[in-house]
Amino acid sequence: MSKRIALPAVVILIAMAVAGIVYVCKLSPVTVEVARVERDVEIRVFGLGSVEAQVLSRIGFQVAIEREAAVIVVTHDEKIFSRLDRMAHLRDGRIVDVVERPPA
Fold it and tell me: 98 by DSSP, 3-state: which?
């Protein structure tokens, strides 16, 4: 085989080898485990801002009513008391007072 044909053939083989390595290392599909669907999962929410808390309170109270569940709200805003059955005041991590909402 002449040198004029051998050099381009070697370059093409090297390029194909590099492309194959790149494909295997970077572009080939990756196997990913998919989580299974779960029902009746406990929901825990921490550190919400005021907008998120408003949205969650609308949804959370509705779900609690439908499922006859309890909702625990930790807030500095006592305006939410109108939606609660009772409110506990905490000081230094201890309950210092519990106020029951009068029946409607």
Answer: strand
Structure tokens, 104: 């409607």
| Token duo for residue 17 | 């080898």
Nearest to 60 by CA among 80, 79, 87: 80
Segment 38-89, tens digit of pLDDT: 888 777 666 667 677 777 777 877 888 888 877 777 777 777 777 778 888 8
Question: What is the per-residue DSSP string for 33-88?
Answer: PPPPP-SS------S--HHHHHHHHHHHHHHHHHHT-------S-GGGGGG-SEEE
**Residue 5 — very low, low, confident or very high, per pLDDT cuts 50/70/90?**
confident
How much is the pTM? 0.38
User: Nearest-CA neighbor of 54 among 31, 79, 34?
Assistant: 79
